[in-house]
Amino acid sequence: MIEVLSELSDSPLPQTRGPKLNPFFDPSRSSDRHVRFLRLLGGGGHGYVFEVTIGSQRYALKIFKFYNPLAHQPLTHLGVPSDAITPQVDPFFAECRAFGRLIECGLNGDIGVHCYGYIKLPVEFEGMVARTNAARSIGGFCWDRPSQDGPSQLEPFRGIVKELVSGDPFVSGMAEKMGADLLKLSNIGVYPIDIKEDNYRGGRLTDFSASWTRPHVMLSVKGPLFAVQLQKDLLDKMIQGMIRNDSSSFTTDGTVEA
User: 41: closest CA among 211, 246, 201?
Assistant: First the structure.
């Protein structure tokens, strides 16, 4: 187990037009900013998720990899400045914007897991976590940090604090609700486009790092109808795949088959 003192932040992110996510720690009051890492829960293309304690509470903390603006270079031909695209497509900012919109609409913890805000961790976290059993178990962490001229220019790590949940992605009877939830999300301008088993717990979404949240450059290019159809296709594919792997098969409308 390692313990890291998080940095103080006082500004909602991202600092651009559209929804924003507040910091986890309120700088106006005294609070325990020590984050105690208990175990690695999983990882993917955008970052790693840890079980942590902050104060006396346990949370899931997603620490994001660093984003390379060159990844969205093909979008710049649309005439949108690069610095305007990053706050929309950087996975950390994408998740901030999606959770920010859910909070605005009173849906935090309903469609997705509850989000408590973002935090920043110092550069020293990288060396500390690299020496843990978790790092050895996966052959080391890959943070995709861009090359820098010196330690003083290294950016802090960015993370989002979420409700700690466990259990299966979903069980029989939830498929209809999951489809309705995606429609509810589209009605408030949030379009998760990474619909897969790993991103659900108990029928709720845990990951919004690949979401398009209005206003968004990709919604301007592809259109909302494209996003809705993509969501439907991915949800159907995920459910059908789980049905084939589940001995207690159920249909996509949630009814149990004999």
Answer: 201
